[in-house]
# Entry
Amino acid sequence: MRAEDPCHETVRSTREARGPGIATMALRLAWIVPAVALLCLAMFLSIGRTKLSQVVLELVVVFVYSTLIAPPSAFSLASISRRFGARHPRVTFLSNVGVLLLTATLGALVGGLLLQWMRIVPRGAFREEFRGAWPFSVLITLIVGLSITSYETLRYKLQAATLEARTRQMEQERAYKLLAEARLNALESRIHPHFLFNTLNSIASLIPSDPKRAEDTISRLASLLRFSLGAQHNGLVPLAQELKIVRDYLEIESTRFGGRLRYEIETSPAMDPVKIPPLAVQTLVENVVKHVVAQRPGGASIRVSGALNNGNAELEVIDNGPGFSLGAVTPEHGLGNLVARLDLLFGERGNLDVVRENEKTVVRLTFPAET
# Structure
């Protein structure tokens, strides 16, 4: 069995939450009109307005009134609820009462004329018929109309709440998917043959001359792989942990590039517990290493800094490379993945900006400073 597309499910739920369509309304009226007619007939019989011998005739009368009043009332109420119900509930209620009074009055007038044309009401008795039918038409219309409107309002709120919960669940699932993709991309870059071979060759060259640094590089590589494989169920890690991985990565690459890779990491200790999407800063730094340090004979300088500003954490990765445009980044790219994760995790409060300042490229990461 093929699973239903979540997008189609969301669209369908949205349409349902906006209110019933014409076809659905017609089906409802198919049982509402006879039900109202039988209700009216039962009321008339109970108060002795008619005798049992005239039941069929009275059924025709109440069916005429119900048919003339119910459909205009239903379509008018549905239209008002779709346009104004969620924004102005009190005005909508008063509008519904006014519409029901109007449709009941017009239905009683047209119904009396139609019954007179059908010769069920004697000629000259139209005014008396209207005087007797109008109070019952208004009463029944208000009772039935407001009851159905209240039911539809509660059903709409329930569907809207269900849709909102479903949308949040889908966004959360997408955020976890993007996080998994980011970890996979990071892991792939770690176990990429070029990276591993270069790192292992660097370690091998360090063993005779600097065995302590070779041992440290192996430890950093293990930490990097362990962090890439680690599962963070909430999708966030402390900034201190993220920056440790960034230092490990840069130290590993330093064994390969030597003096071509120059870096500095400077953040306030108050930012250490701030939660950040894992591999966020590391993705920015790795982008500089791949596209600037590795491509230029003179390498590049990388500076990572951070500060707290009005409840937000601001992290900057600055390099002296030629720069790039964030608009040219595809969603499949590591930076594109990071932008999508920020949007899902923080909404409008999560941003990634790229600017040129003093002939340097500044990639600025902004998100709520939560611990």
Summary: The chain has ten helices and seven strands. The radius of gyration is 36 Å. The chain has two domains: 6-170, 192-368.
